């Protein structure tokens, strides 16, 4: 019972060791119970509450901040509640995000990292972690295919930030004086990325003062891959308008379709025009570790920079994202400001290990240790096996949906990554023969256009409008599974199932399909 104990009684309080141990053990019990529940298929993925319900503190869970210290018993209750109302992203039936799963070694790594509570800016305060980062980044560069003499990088707070680094570096590479003179000294820059690429490329242009209108969204084929001829056309168009093309992003594993842009063909175009080629492999980079799948990234070794998020396909606990740069020294030159209080040049060790000045941050979380520890625990073989397993699950779902009359795949071809995109078919759509008329009805049912007409025709069926959002709402309220949906281009809302959790088995895939069908037909 911790009801008469407060945080002031914990270490560094005198004689605080025993109560500290007891408190942390109790917390550990809470976390272990949560971990067990996360892996237990009979427990829910989430216990959904609307924001006002959580804010009201209806079930005794208060978000309000007190003036007086609360006792440790209350803090343990708060910890339990925080987990209770959260989403179990490690549950084998959580398919909602690209980053899922709960790796126990990764978790141990994160605990150690928090306990060490150090900062990644200098060797002085993070000697072991800095060296681990060097080892891991080198390993990743080897899988990209850069030579021994090439390669640099840094862990950053997520794929969007890693992509931001790529645009920043490309701009600096062509216009080093931007660092001192700013954007006014530059021509109007243009960058190119596919219509299916992640919005972070456009956000980078916004953040860096390049402007969203100067981002050219290159057309994709039906499968979501950038069409090289369209890239060439976009570059010519930009030049014709007097813009200065400097950067192309090729995506290895698009967020929704999981498509891989043809990197080699794009690299040829970049070479011809002298452009920086970035590969956003935030999602697909992990496939480099798999013998079965790495050919999908053919040509990546020709990139000037690569984003790779081990917190996605490699199941490393959030966050763990790397920006890898082919040209050594560029990160440092681009970002270095040599703050004298931190990066003293007269230190008694090799100050190139004070990697913090390569970054646009000052303080930097240790993201590398959990990955390093997981690599030790699994070896390359372990990562390969888990990645192959996730893609097998996607193939299984794809194959299963091909044989179901109540589902329609968004594209028929086999998944390239672990994304499977599909519609659930309302019964009246299902009964129609495939073709234009059926597609039109599907569109109406999902988009909610003419909902009342459809409603009259269907006499109150749930499928009258916006099918996916309605199924998703019911799914979250029942809490047994979670999968995302979105529209894309001319495609009305469809489900996107992604697999990155090695704990997911075929029976979980069966469960998801049956659950969507159950919720859709009720
Ligand atoms: N940064 C992309 C993450 C998107 C997703 O998890 O669906």
From TrEMBL:
Organism domain of life: Eukaryota
Record keywords: Decarboxylase, Lyase, Pyridoxal phosphate
PROSITE patterns: DDC_GAD_HDC_YDC
Gene3D superfamilies assigned to the protein according to its UniProt record, in alphabetical order: 3.90.1150.170, Type I PLP-dependent aspartate aminotransferase-like (Major domain) (3.40.640.10)
GO molecular function, one term: pyridoxal phosphate binding
Sites bearing N6-(pyridoxal phosphate)lysine, chain numbering: 312
GO cellular component: cytoplasm; presynaptic active zone
Family annotation (SUPFAM superfamilies): PLP-dependent transferases
Needed co-factor(s): pyridoxal 5'-phosphate
GO biological process: gamma-aminobutyric acid biosynthetic process
Quaternary structure (record): Homodimer.
Family under the similarity heading: Belongs to the group II decarboxylase family.
Protein name: Glutamate decarboxylase 1a
Species per Swiss-Prot/TrEMBL record: Electrophorus voltai
